[in-house]
Design brief:
Blueprint lengths: L8 H5 L34 H5 L14 E5 L8 H15 L4 E5 L5 H5 L25 E2 L5 E4 L8 H8 L4 H8 L6 E5 L6 H9 L2 E7 L3 H17 L5 E8 L4 H8 L7 E3 L2 H9 L3 H4 L4 H22 L1
Parallel strand pairs: 1-5, 1-6, 2-4, 2-5, 6-7, 7-8
Antiparallel strand pairs: 3-4
Helix pairs in contact: 3-12, 6-7
Bound molecules: adenosine-5'-triphosphate (ATP) and magnesium ion.
């Protein structure tokens, strides 16, 4: 069944509860609201206007106008790191934006997926100390415009450390320090609620929330929304994203055609899974595959949001 949802569905997709940014531009149909191919796929892009628009920043990267994009979910193993790395690669390589991928998760998956070697020294948490300077730990990657601040075991104590120093905006202040150097910072976040997530929410311009295609995701989303309201009142625009959507499964199709219809979906795909084996973004080995196109559409929607917010 074609998911032709009224344009108002978009407002449901982006939760702008804080009202921090203007609504997205109105278009007839959103890129993810496409006929379902039934094979775990999202159909070929028939919202051609959006898909074929070249979003490269031809005017050159305007440093200083930085956006912090946090890929955050309370759920583990839902594709946060995979999506963070993909968005960072697209932003840097396709968008031409000076981009920093900041891995805040002790597991250190983001660097791994980019093919980077582990850092021998445990210094990632040191950035959060009083004299910590993120620029000293940032490494260039093999990809143009893409830098990495990788994680290591020292981040185990991050939650405690942040609680102890009691600076609610420490991460926000650190990302601000990098304003002149990067125009996009992508945060790959750990699946935690608490001090770390408070810092992430305070630092982020948009929150991308990958969710499994399951009724349990509504609970997770509700918990997050309640937490945001209670702790933050106003919060950055939030975009739930269905992760590992498998159109062959009736349960997935039913949810996507029902309550989860407003949200973009990333298909379950062996090509996306391969990014962990090849340790390279899908765009480097299967750029035209449908899953890569779905990720591309998602990146463009996020770009439209952050650019719209900055223009306002
Ligand atoms: N769309 C997808 N299709 C198939 N496999 C996927 C997809 N997205 C992620 N995966 C795989 O799912 C696993 C978990 O992904 P990932 O590590 O990105 O999740 P995460 O949310 O960052 O996990 P954690 O909470 O542990 O940090 C990985 O093996 C990854 O390759
Ligand atoms: Mg992860």
């Amino acid at each position: 069944m074609a998911l032709l949802v009224a344009q108002d569905g978009l407002d449901e997709a982006w939760d702008d509860a804080g009202g921090l940014s203007p609504p997205l531009p109105r278009v007839k149909r959103w890129p993810w609201q496409l006929p379902d191919l039934g094979q775990g796929g999202i159909a070929g892009c028939d919202s051609d206007k959006i898909c074929q628009t070249d979003h490269r920043d031809h005017s050159g990267d305007s440093l200083g106008k930085m956006s912090v994009i946090a890929v955050y979910s309370t759920k583990g193993g839902v594709g946060k790191t995979t999506l963070s790395v993909d968005l960072a690669w697209r932003s840097a390589v396709l968008g031409g934006h000076k981009t920093l991928l900041w891995d805040l998760d002790v597991q250190g998956g983001a660097g791994y997926l980019l093919g980077e070697d582990e850092q021998p020294r445990l210094r990632a948490a040191g950035v959060f100390h009083r004299e910590g300077r993120p620029d000293q730990l940032i490494c260039e990657t093999a990809y143009p415009n893409l830098s990495l601040l990788s994680a290591d075991d020292s981040l185990r104590s991050l939650q405690l450390h942040l609680a102890r120093i009691g600076q609610k905006r420490r991460l926000a202040n650190l990302t601000n320090m990098l304003r002149g150097r990067y125009s996009r910072i992508i945060l790959d976040c750990p699946p935690l609620l608490g001090e770390v997530s408070d810092q992430i929410i305070a630092a982020a311009d948009v929150l991308i929330v990958p969710l499994p295609v399951s009724p349990l995701s509504f609970r997770a989303l509700d918990t997050l929304r309640r937490e945001l309201k209670r702790e933050h009142g106003r919060h950055p625009p939030l975009l739930p994203v269905l992760s590992m959507y498998d159109g062959r499964r009736k349960a997935h199709r039913d949810l996507r055609e029902g309550e989860m219809a407003p949200y973009p979906a990333i298909p379950w795909s062996s090509a996306i899974e391969q990014t962990a084996f090849r340790r390279a973004p899908i765009g480097t080995f299967a750029p035209h595959a449908e899953p890569a196109q779905a990720l591309d559409r998602l990146w463009r929607v996020i770009e439209a949001k952050v650019q719209g917010a900055r223009a306002a």
